[in-house]
Amino acid sequence: MSLEQWTDVDRYICEKLVASDDALDGAQHAAAEAGLPAISVSAAQGKLLQILVQLHGAKTILEIGTLGGYSTIWMARALPAGGRLISLEIDPKHAQVATASLAKAGVGDKVEVRVGAAIESLPVLAAEGVGPFDLIFIDADKASNADYFAWALKLSRKGTMIIVDNVVRNGAVLDAETDSADIVGTRRLFDALAAEARVNATAIQTVGSKGYDGFVIGVVDPG
Question: Which of 6, 13, 25, 95 is the Cys-Cys partner for 207 at CB 3.0 to 4.6 Å?
Answer without folding.
Answer: 6
